[in-house]
Write a structure and sequence with these properties.
- By secondary structure, the protein is α/β, with parallel strands linked by helices.
- It is 46% helix and 12% strand.
- Helix 8 links the parallel strand 6 and strand 7.
- Helix 1 runs parallel beside helix 3, helix 2 packs antiparallel against helix 6 and helix 4 packs across helix 9.
- This is LAO/AO transport system ATPase.
Length: 320
Amino acid sequence: MHEKVIEGILNGDRRMVARAISLIENQDPNKNKILSEIYPHTGKAYVVGITGAPGAGKSSLVDRYLETLRKQGLTVGVIAVDPTSPFTGGAILGDRIRMQEHALDKDIFIRSMGTRGSLGGLSRATKEAVQVLDAAGKDVIVIETVGVGQSEVDIIKYADSTLVVMTPAGGDSVQTIKAGIMEIADIFIVNKSDLAGADRTVSEIGMMLDLSENNKQWRPPVVRTVTLDSSGIDDMYEAIEKHRTFLMESGNIEKVRKERIRRDVLDLIEYQIKNTVWDQVSGSDEFEELVNQIMSRENDPYSAAAQVLQGVNLDQCKVF
């Protein structure tokens, strides 16, 4: 059955692309085989990440950006990550509602994904879904993160260009400077810039950039947008294209993608080892005894962890 899915992905079959992403999310036994087979056909799409605080207007920006990309004749894949309830395990997946006018466009594929407990604003399956859309021939892949605030920095592991979306009066200047999320931006977007305080927000970002030592090669531009009338969307598109040109001409795109591959391999190794340790240890009498010893302060977590690792048989680590 997976051969049919692989063939469908490579032919750009929307139904098979959707099925493949569902298999990935559900940890289907054929998932790794599919990803392995399509991997030689990836690496052509340009990945744009859009992140920022909840309510900043990320989904509306993506919606307008899609219109601009389609005017350029480009095919697009969108992965919109929504928060998963810690109580029910469900997710609203509302981004497809906001982008419904593109639903009938055969050259746009939109997929909402729940975080399913992953931190950092992204689903664990996000990068694998990107590979599917890449192999399916999409020119540009847009990832919209869940919007969790300052800690939402995982997007830099996936995107070639990262846009941080802010709004006027989104925080004072000290908050702006200290926020970790500000350090990952390739482009700053001040959305809803028709509101009072937009000039101050732009000024604060400029001050932060003047103090930063991270933009010697590339200084992130600050773009004002208003999604209600699409003002500034063309400027946003041009800023992304300029950053793309910079990455290509400077050779940084190769460094970024090589580091991404290195991280992916290590993440997969870590994931498999963690699962192996969990399978061998969780629920065992020996492990429960260690927990009891720690509870009574007869042992400590560090010594217990070392003891567990000494007894783990990594030869049982599952092969992909």
